[in-house]
Each structure stands twice: as structure tokens, then as C-alpha cells.
């Protein structure tokens, strides 16, 4: 319907609303941030005027919208254009619009050879970085109950606070509801604690392709016969327990998450609620690193110590017998060359080995 008001305010009637600041992603990706070289802008084929009212008509109304998307044999989008057909419509009348998308294969397209970059190795988590979770197949920051205005609980997702690695936190709020249904009441509290959907897994490390570990969840035990009169099993506290450890070389250890557990502590409460409930949530990080023993601890029997080359005696003999030349047996020894050369360079000693 084209009215006197919608003629100039309805974006469906204006051409610019179909392509302004719009780009297509060249290939499917799950990345949270898309690089500019992976975007293809939608290019208009002309400069169309905006709708205007004149003599009981709405001029320059979009009648047809035609997208043309070009792609390579590998399925990568290369460019996109858009074309329109405009018409003049009497005010207070209906207009029938047609939208179409055409895909065109570019057989001649030869992409530039690009070097294959290996996937970067997994990188340990930095202290204070956000813990990432897999929620409905999408990587998102793990969040929990945050600070709310006036201390009242809110199911607004923007009120949730991200869980930061190694940061132990505790927060709380007061919850009120007039709901007289146990299931609905319990769902409201779950959403306040962790959002609308529980995470399936959390990332063990950071990077574009992190390793994942499963989240163990201990929910409230529900009685099938529960009712508001007998009491509802409601979660009043939420505990996130994350186990982590340092792995790799001692000089450059990497922080990895080994596992996580969501623990809800529940209580039987009658509804509707006669007074507000106090909800608390905390996140705890437990380090389980096992460090190796120091390599230079108690001396072992098989260790060899350097000889004292200033005293030539039986302790310096290497056990070899020299029988060449004369018939007499001579015992030879080996001196430590490095200390002798070092002292010689410093000019402290002179020696002659014959």
C-alpha cells in the first residue's frame, strides 16, 4: 500500500535502501570479524531518484528489484550489481513488486595464485582474556550474571558480563516475578544466569580454530508432580567451575582450559513469590598444573664431574695404556682443553704438552 505518509518514509519504496552500505561475503565463514578483502559491495547500475509526492501520485516507486551475482567455478563471489524499474503509483493504492536474484558463472575467471598459509598453531589463553564458548554452533564469549541497575535481576542479554580467564568473580541480584507456573519461573531464572541458551563447549585455547572441551551441567532435579502450591525447584545460585593448567615448556608455558562445570544449587519455593529471591552467581578458576622436578636436584651416581687439571694424579687418569715406542708401559691422561685454552687466552698460564 502506497499512502501519503509511506511514499517518502517506507524504505521498501526507495531504491537506496536495497544497496546502501551493503556487501556480500565472498565465501561462507564462521569468523566473527570479516576482512575487507572478503567483502563484495553491491554496485547500483544507475543513480535513481528518491520517491516524491506530486499531484496525488507517488513518483519513482520501486516496482522491480534485480540482483546479479557473479561467481567463480569454485563458488567464490566476485562482484554484485543491482538494477531497478520505477513506476508512478496513485496514493492510497497497492503496488505489486517483483524481486529476483540471478547468479552468473564466470568461466573465464582465473584467480591469482595465493600462497597457502598454514593454520597458526594453538595459542594459550592470556590472563584476563574472554573465555569463548560454542553456543548454537557459533563461537561467542561465555557470559554470566552481571551487575544490574538497582540490584534487580534482568533477562536483558546486554546485562550479562563476560567470564575473563583466571578472574574469580561473584555477583548477585534480587528476582521478582508474578508467574504462577513452575516451568516458566525456572526458565526465567536460567536465562538471567546464563542467557537463553546453555553453551555446548568452551574453547581450551585461543585462535581461529581452537580446541574444544565439553561443559558438564548439573541442573535442578525436577519432580514431575511439582506445582506452585507444593513448591517449585528453582536455581538460586549458579557456579561456573573452570579447571586449567599450564602446558608446554617451562620457559614459555601455554595456558589451557581442561574442563568446565555448571552447577546450579536449587531450592523448593512456592509461587507466586511472596518476596523477592536473591540470586547469586560466581566463576572460579582452579589451576591443576603439575610441574616437573628440578633437573639439578640430588646428584646421581652416573653424573661425571670435571677433574682438577692443576693436580696431576691418579684421579686424572683416563685408564688408557700407551705401549707404542718402547717396551715400557706409560699411562696417559686427558686434560680438559676448554679451561686451559681459556686461561691461556687470559694470559694467566702457559703450558706445553709434549
What is the helix/strand order?
HEEEEEEEEEEEHEEEEEEEH
Structural class: mainly beta
Large-scale geometry: flat
Tell me the span between the first and last alpha carbons. 112 Å
The biggest beta sheet is recorded as: 8 strands, mixed
Share of helix among residues?
A: under 10%
Roughly how many Å is the radius of gyration?
37 Å
Low-pLDDT sequence parts: 312-323, 325-354
Query: Which sequence of strands runs across the widest sheet?
Result: 8-7-12-13-15-14-16-11
Number of structural domains: 2
Mean pLDDT: 80
Alpha plus pi helix count: 3
**Approximate strand percentage:** 35-45%
By DSSP, the count of extended strands is: 18
Q: What are the main properties of this structure?
A:
2 domains, mainly beta, disordered C terminus, eight-stranded mixed beta sheet, 3 helices, 354 residues
What does this structure look like?
The protein is mainly β. The chain folds into two domains: 101 residues, no CATH class; 159 residues, no CATH class. It has three helices and 18 strands. An eight-stranded mixed β-sheet has the order 8-7-12-13-15-14-16-11, with helices on one face. Strands 1, 2, 3, 4, 5 and 6 form a six-stranded mixed β-sheet that branches. Strand 17 and strand 18 form a beta hairpin. InterPro entries: TCTN1-3 (IPR040354), TCTN1-3_dom (IPR011677). It comes from Poecilia reticulata. This is Tectonic-3. Part of the tectonic-like complex (also named B9 complex).
Amino acid at each position: 500500500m502506497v499512502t501519503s505518509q509511506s511514499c517518502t518514509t517506507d524504505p521498501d519504496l526507495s531504491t537506496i535502501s536495497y544497496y546502501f552500505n551493503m556487501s556480500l561475503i565472498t565465501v561462507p565463514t564462521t569468523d566473527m570479524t570479516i576482512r575487507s578483502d572478503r567483502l563484495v559491495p553491491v554496485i547500483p547500475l544507475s543513480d535513481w531518484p528518491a520517491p516524491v509526492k506530486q499531484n496525488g501520485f507517488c513518483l519513482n516507486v520501486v516496482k522491480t528489484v534485480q540482483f546479479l551475482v557473479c561467481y567463480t567455478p569454485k563458488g567464490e563471489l566476485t562482484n554484485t550489481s543491482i538494477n531497478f524499474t520505477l513506476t508512478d503509483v496513485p496514493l492510497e493504492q497497492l503496488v505489486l513488486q517483483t524481486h529476483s536474484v540471478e547468479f552468473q558463472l564466470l568461466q573465464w575467471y582465473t584467480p591469482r595464485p595465493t600462497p597457502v598459509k598454514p593454520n597458526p598453531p594453538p595459542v594459550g589463553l592470556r590472563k584476563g582474556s574472554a573465555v569463548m564458548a560454542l553456543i548454537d554452533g557459533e563461537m561467542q564469549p561465555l557470559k554470566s550474571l552481571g551487575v544490574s541497575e538497582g540490584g534487580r535481576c534482568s533477562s536483558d542479554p546486554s546485562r550479562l558480563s563476560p567470564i575473563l580467564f583466571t578472574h574469580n568473580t561473584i555477583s548477585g541480584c534480587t528476582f521478582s516475578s508474578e508467574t504462577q507456573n513452575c516451568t516458566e519461573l525456572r526458565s526465567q531464572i536460567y536465562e538471567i544466569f546464563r542467557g537463553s541458551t546453555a553453551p555446548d563447549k568452551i574453547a581450551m585455547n585461543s585462535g581461529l580454530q581452537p580446541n574444544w572441551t565439553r561443559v558438564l551441567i548439573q541442573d535442578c532435579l525436577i519432580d514431575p508432580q511439582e506445582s506452585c502450591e507444593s513448591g517449585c525447584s528453582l536455581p538460586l545460585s549458579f557456579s561456573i567451575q573452570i579447571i586449567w593448567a599450564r602446558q608446554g615448556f617451562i620457559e614459555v608455558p601455554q595456558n589451557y582450559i581442561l574442563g568446565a562445570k555448571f552447577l546450579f544449587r536449587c531450592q523448593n519455593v512456592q509461587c507466586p513469590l511472596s518476596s523477592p529471591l536473591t540470586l547469586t552467581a560466581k566463576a572460579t578458576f582452579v589451576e591443576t598444573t603439575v610441574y616437573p622436578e628440578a633437573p639439578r636436584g640430588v646428584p646421581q651416581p652416573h653424573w661425571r664431574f670435571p677433574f682438577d687439571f692443576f693436580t696431576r694424579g691418579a684421579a686424572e687418569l683416563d685408564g688408557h695404556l700407551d705401549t707404542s715406542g718402547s717396551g715400557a708401559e706409560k699411562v696417559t691422561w686427558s686434560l680438559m682443553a676448554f679451561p686451559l685454552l681459556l686461561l691461556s687466552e687470559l694470559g694467566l698460564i702457559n703450558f706445553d704438552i709434549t
